[in-house]
Design goal:
With 659 residues, the chain is an alpha/beta fold. It is built from 22 helices and 27 strands.
Length: 659
């Protein structure tokens, strides 16, 4: 197997070259295999895979695209086994299938399944491929060093741009590897959740570097396109990428669809290998969709329904044949990992549809798209697209939360409470299935949303669950208003995550040049301040109040101040916050835990889980809290409950010492 550029600029390159290029070609295209193994996933071949593990499926798929002369079979076996280690993936089935039975269903399709592709290191489906990609990159980097190739003494620099999930997935796959550096760029302005930020910025491995950039993820991606179009720059700095532009990511994700298909067919009565299975694919930058399409081209009998959030990048293409990017009006949605209006993976999809068209879809076309110009896909490509994709639907944030509530109700009837939730991206998938079936049956819901729609219309497919709900617990509780406690298996890891301080860096939006933040004691800070209690919600100082000094009980007893307006989140421990006003007046507040942040507008923000004015908290209350904490500790059933009880005890101890 060799690889060609979609633009025709490069042909017959090795898998190693395609991998270490990050998938980009010099003319602005991306690498694709020189042919598709069309019958590799026929019913006959699937029968040989139906009883094997996910790592075995991954090895089979990889063997169809990697020549044994590049990675010998024994080496390939080791790399994939290492990447998909049982110590990293927490469910024995890797991607378990959840059955959501309904009392009735349309068209005789009386089933609804959900494929949980998130029992993984960073809790997202991308890990199932990314963990292997990390092994490939380290493998070839090591061979380059061993061969003494020119520039072989340099490490490969892996560039990542992320809307939240790809960054943490790449970090978990590549952290600690001695032959690569990882440079992650993520957008500013609250476009990712605090959990996603913490997953990236708290990693202490020396080869991990995270930068916040101005603009959206699409803006970062356009910069990367420019970087990789400069062959001298790529060669000098040994640049590569682990975004979905890299063919190895797409290749690895094909195995996910094979695994889902085989498990669903084994689950469903009356279904046999070779029968078609409808699968709903939530996608933003189209990497997930691209893998599904390649799997279908290889013979996997699936019918694809695409799910977009309100940014609707693929939906516009599917509905009108238009490719247009409007980054200025990009929406920030609850399903933020899909907040994209541009996709280099689209070039690969266009190649699948009409290879002759993609030779004109290179650097010049990308420049037009960057300027906001529309490009149109040929009628031939659109005809082929509608053969491969049976439907595409869009979910608004309101519809997303409605569906989270609906599925919560449906799941609660058969699953433990802590599992009866879905993440917002998965909810977008369920909305797409519902709308797809509504169009087929010509039934439509009420104007009040999706909660009262006939439940029978939510059937006949498997929906891919792309992220663990623990990553989006704030959306579940604050937007869908579903009582939610993180699952016990995740509680300890999450508590560790939020007790670590970030390693922030500053970034120039043009070239991602890092500058480490300078550390400063809180007593040296003279800033305006916003002091917010999360529960109950109160604001004690607003942005118009000048603060002379803020002393906070940080975990490391210091708070960092970042240059270039990059916020730093410091973790607070139970203790006293002392706020000194410019008039000299001092106020003290007791907090249980929380964070302190230097914001973009140079204000200081304290966000705490629970807080009190010290004068409002007497000794009797402290003793009561201590008793409650000790009682809860004695009754605690898991790590989560123990951690909550410990916070109560430590908070009470601080008060009793202070009064």
């Amino acid at each position: 197997m060799k690889y060609n550029s979609t633009c025709g600029s490069e042909k017959g390159v090795s898998f190693e070259t395609a991998l270490l290029s990050g998938g980009y070609t010099t003319a602005g295209g991306v690498f694709i295999p020189d042919h598709i193994p069309l019958n590799a996933l026929s019913a006959e071949q699937l029968s040989l895979l139906k009883d094997v593990t996910f790592p075995d499926i991954s090895k089979y798929v990889a063997s169809k695209f990697i020549s044994p002369s590049e990675i010998p079979p024994d080496d390939l076996d080791v790399l994939i086994s290492r990447g998909l280690s049982r110590s990293k993936f927490t469910h024995p089935d890797f991607i378990p299938i959840v059955d959501l039975p309904s009392e009735s269903a349309a068209d005789g399709e009386d089933f609804l399944l959900m494929a949980e592709a998130f029992h993984s290191p960073s809790l997202v489906f991308k890990d199932y491929s990314m963990q292997i990609v990390g092994q490939y990159i380290n493998y070839f980097s090591g061979r380059t060093l061993k061969r003494g190739v020119s520039g072989g003494d340099k490490k490969n620099n892996v560039l990542i741009c992320t809307t939240g999930d790809t960054g943490s997935s790449a970090i978990e796959a590549l952290r600690g590897l001695d032959k690569v550096n990882v440079i992650v760029g993520f957008p500013d302005g609250g476009q990712i959740t605090d959990f996603q930020r913490k997953q990236m910025t708290t990693v202490r491995d020396a080869n991990i570097h995270c930068f916040q950039a101005e603009g959206t993820c699409d803006d970062i991606d356009m910069v990367y396109v420019d970087l990789f179009s400069d062959p001298n720059l790529v060669e000098e700095f040994k640049l590569t990428s682990a975004n979905s532009t890299n063919w190895a990511r797409i290749m690895g994700q094909i195995a996910i669809y094979v695994c889902i298909y085989l498990q669903c067919i084994a689950t469903l009565k009356g279904k046999k290998l070779g029968d078609a299975l409808k699968i709903v694919v939530p996608t933003g930058a189209c990497g997930n969709l691209c893998s599904a399409l390649f799997a279908k081209q290889m013979g996997l009998p699936i019918k694809i329904v695409v799910a977009n959030n309100s940014n609707a990048f693929f939906y516009r293409l599917f509905s009108t044949g238009e490719i247009v990017v409007d980054s200025a009006n990009q929406r920030r949605t609850l399903s933020n990992a899909m907040d994209s209006q541009w996709s280099p993976s689209l070039t690969r999809i266009l190649w699948l549809l009409a290879p002759e068209d993609t030779e004109n879809f290179g650097q010049s076309a990308i420049r037009k798209i960057k300027k906001g110009e529309k490009l149109f896909v040929s009628e031939k490509a659109m005809s082929r697209l509608r053969e491969l994709v049976v439907g595409c639907e869009v979910a608004s944030d309101e519809e997303t939360t409605d569906m989270m509530i609906h599925v919560h109700s449906r799941l609660s009837r058969q699953l433990p409470q802590q599992q009866a939730v879905i993440c917002p991206h998965t909810a977008v998938g369920f909305v797409a299935l519902l709308k797809h079936n509504m169009k087929k049956s010509k039934k439509f819901g009420s104007a009040d949303g999706l909660r009262d729609v006939d439940d029978s219309l939510l059937s006949g497919a498997v929906v891919m669950a792309t992220a663990h709900p623990d990553k989006f617990s704030s959306v579940i509780t604050n937007n869908a208003h579903i009582p939610y406690r993180c699952s016990s298996e995740m509680a300890q890891n999450m508590l560790k995550l939020f007790s670590r301080l970030s390693r922030p860096s500053a970034v120039s939006s043009s070239r991602f040049l890092a500058q480490e933040a300078a550390a400063a004691k809180p007593s040296e800070v003279s800033k305006k301040m916003r002091f917010t209690f999360a529960s109950p919600s109160q604001v004690f100082y607003d942005n118009d109040t000048e603060i002379k000094q803020v002393d906070v009980p940080c975990v490391n007893d210091a708070m960092g101040i970042c240059p270039n307006h990059v916020p730093l989140v410091g973790v607070l421990k139970p203790g006293l916050v002392n706020v000194v006003h410019e008039t000299g007046e001092s106020k003290k507040f007791l907090i249980s835990s929380g964070s302190v942040t230097i914001n973009f507008d140079n204000t200081v923000q304290l966000l705490v889980e629970e807080g009190y004015k010290l004068e409002d908290f007497d000794k009797a209350q402290a003793q009561k809290l201590m008793e409650e904490g000790n009682s809860n500790m004695a009754k605690a059933k898991d790590d989560y409950e123990k951690a909550i009880a410990q916070i109560q005890i430590e908070t009470a101890e601080v008060v009793l010492k202070s009064i």
